[in-house]
Amino acid sequence: MSEYLPGLAGVPATKSNISAIDGEKGLLAYRGYPLEELAANSSFEEVTLLLLDGELPTANELKDFDEQLRSNRAVKYNIRELMKSLPITGHPMEMLQTAVASLGMFYPASECLTDGASCEDLQYVHNMTVKIIARMATIVAMWKHIRNGYDPIPPRDDLTYAENFLYMWTGKEPDPLLARILDVCLILHAEHTINASTFAVLVTASTLASPYSVIASAIGTLSGPLHGGANQKVVEMLHEIGEPENVEAYIDARLANKEVIWGMGHREYKTKDPRAPILQSLMMDLMEARGGKMSKLFEVAQVVEEVCEDRLANKGVYANVDFYSGVLYSEMGIPTDQFTTIFAVARSAGWLAHWREQLSDNRIFRPTQVYTGESNRSYIPIDKR
Ligand code: COA
């Protein structure tokens, strides 16, 4: 029997040509293109098509895909009614998981459940992918209004993916800088090899479940604080610290209590997560556009990073993507409990690329286990226990 490795750390569970990480050098590439180049030059729509198809699209291919996304933004009113019946006390990630799973009831995707034929039909896979990616942002933006007792703002088809999200969120014409910042955030979160939620995608996809079930599994997996939920924890921690001068004592107390510092450390990166400096520089752009006024949260975050570098660099623990993304989303007026839903919107691109890859060479996942329980016991009647 092979050796048991907790968390499957270092165990290859699949083959993939979608993205690659070099954890020692702090590099991430989608389909061979360095993330920094994509963040500087591309858009979420283009990166999504790159992740799905493996190649940068031509202008016409991108235009077609963009039009497909734009024309699939609206959701049936039944989904809106269902969302209205959800308790506002629930976590937005639970809302998102529920709403995405419910899409499977309202839009036909049942072919995958009954026989494998449609799962091998690339057009079917592409159409389902477009429907899900287009509607993820709609659902997240709708929830902002529904949870506050208002009707959601309908999507527009004359705006980019990021612009439309901001429009649906605020009801106002999107600010170009905020739209570009959000676009880059979506690019940075779109894909990240076989992390926990992508592994959930592969396992669910391997049973030929519908893509809505696949993405609902992934959303549930992403919601945990050790994965996508960390950016919410980061901002809560920064608020708790309050002032830059409190940082050192706060961090040292947490470390002495063996508590993690949220937004620090990564299973793959043993240096700074390459996404963190890009977010940090977006934050600088935003500060500059706001007349150089430093946000308190950002100020505290920078000191936390400095102190953590001093205390944790020897363990290969540095700032990860969640460290600055939460700060940026806060500055954009997004409530902390909705941060991870935006992460999920972006990651739906990578998840669906992995769904497609899994279907192209499928074998159901069935790992083994090391049994550590009792054996050969005889049933004891209840009155004898
Ligand atoms: N704060 C304090 N110490 C940390 C730490 C953190 N955020 N992350 C790792 N460490 C320490 C561990 O305690 C361990 O110390 P030890 O060797 O003295 O026991 C050492 O660094 C190695 O960490 P390990 O737990 O083996 O790393 P991992 O790969 O299993 O865990 C994470 C990776 C992401 C789960 C972990 O870093 C973490 O919990 N980070 C905070 C949550 C977070 O930001 N998640 C988002 C990831 S994108």
How would you sum up this structure, described in words?
This protein is mostly helical. The chain folds into two domains: 19-224 and 340-360, Citrate Synthase, domain 1; 230-331, Cytochrome p450-Terp, domain 2 (Orthogonal Bundle). The chain contains 17 helices and three strands. It has helices at 35-41, 44-53, 59-71, 77-84, 92-106, 111-114, 122-146, 161-170, 176-189, 196-205, 211-222, 230-241, 247-256, 275-289, 296-312, 321-331, 339-360; strands at residues 19-22, 27-30, 33-34. A three-stranded antiparallel sheet has the order 1-2-3. Coenzyme A binds at residues 226, 230, 260-267, 312, 315, 317, 320-322.
> Can you say what the CATH homologous superfamily of the largest domain is?
Citrate Synthase, domain 1
Shape descriptor reads: globular
Low-pLDDT segments:
none
Lateral arrangement of strands in the main beta sheet: 1-2-3
Q: State the share of residues found in helices, binned by percent.
A: 55-70%
- The count of helical stretches stands at 17
Evaluate the radius of gyration: 22 Å
Oligomer: single chain
SS-derived structural category:
mainly alpha
The CATH topology of the largest domain corresponds to Citrate Synthase, domain 1
End-to-end span in angstroms? 37 Å
Topology, number of strands: 3
The ordered H/E elements are EEEHHHHHHHHHHHHHHHHH
